[in-house]
Amino acid sequence: MLANRGYNSKYQSWLQTCRNILNEEGVKSFWKGHLSGQALTIVYNSVQFSTYKFLTQKLKDLNYSKDNFLLQFAIGGFSGSVATVAALPLDVIRTRMVSQGAKPFYSSIPDAILKIHKADGAIGFYRGTVPAVVQTFPAAGLTFGFYKMFHTALRQFPIIEENVVNVASGFFSGLLVKVFVHPLDVFKKRLMIQGFEEARRGFGRYVVYKGFTDCAVTMMREEGVGGLFKGASPNLVKGAISTALTFGFFELYCKMLKDSA
Questions:
Q1: Superfamily designation of domain 32-260
Q2: pTM (2 decimals)?
Q3: For a disulfide at 165, which of 57, 83, 90, 154, Cβ 3.0-4.6 Å?
Q4: pLDDT digits (tens, 9 = 90+) for 132-142
């Protein structure tokens, strides 16, 4: 049994979590933070893919091959890091709204903005910046690298339709990447909810971390390796599906724009 000393977490499994949320908060609670999440996705993907396309075009002008894995890793990692910093305030708001209990601490996005700013100032919107960037650079880099690798491999089979290749490549790249970077996502989320203990009562022991390193060391000491992979299974499913759809639609839109030019 992996260590989880003294935390007595409220949620222990998919089924138990779904049952508790449904009984205590109702069906609508499964869409907590939906609007802030949508805003986060729009800003993040817009900045990430705009940066990615700009850099790949520059490299194309310099006659670099865009099929190189390491090059894709570097471009993807940098693009993701820029997007992460740009969208981090929305990620903080979304994370806190999702993390609320049955009695909401934040009634709306404007209310969350006002309360976070009042409690922590502007810096409150950038909690978890270090683990977010540390997570995003390899995650985004590997996502683009694996995507290109899977895409190149699947295109060798003419029987597979192009849109299916795009979606499948995104699915497998998203799945692999989430396995590698999940602990960093846990660190990021833990730091984002610092100073938010009033709305976390009843969820288990609340721990205050001094920063990224302290969070990692404390979790390893008190929760063991298992603590680093809490929520891994839903995160893997979400990551695989969202990456598949993101790349699928991105390639589709690019093709439509190219055809209409």
A1: Mitochondrial carrier domain (1.50.40.10)
A2: 0.73
A3: 154
A4: 898 899 999 99
